[in-house]
């Protein structure tokens, strides 16, 4: 079953023909700024499986790796939709809150947490998730 989702206003929709995905939280300070929250929750899928309908706006940020993190968002409602990272050129990081059908829950599991060195103090690690101080 494909993953589907959209921005808040529905102007941009997407789908990923991926039966499986990597569920990841990122606690880096860039993701905190990107979401206005403590972390991003992501469904990481192969870029070849991902299709977008509509015209998202983009913002490029240089990550801790020195590589570009391209953020895609709706220019109308401002919803953060997905990120393409130069360090993972073959993958797309879909922002879980934009997924349809209750998938924001990431099916109740988190595979990995990145940048736990930047995790806010009031949060603990997710049980069973690999804990990475940085990316990779």
From TrEMBL:
Entry superkingdom: Eukaryota
Domain spans labelled CENP-V/GFA: 3-116
Keywords: Lyase, Metal-binding, Zinc
PROSITE patterns xrefs: CENP_V_GFA
Single GO molecular function: metal ion binding
Pfam family, one: GFA
InterPro entries xref list: CENP-V/GFA, Mss4-like_sf
Family indicated by similarity: Belongs to the Gfa family.
Official protein name in the record: CENP-V/GFA domain-containing protein
Record lineage: Eukaryota, Fungi, Dikarya, Ascomycota, Pezizomycotina
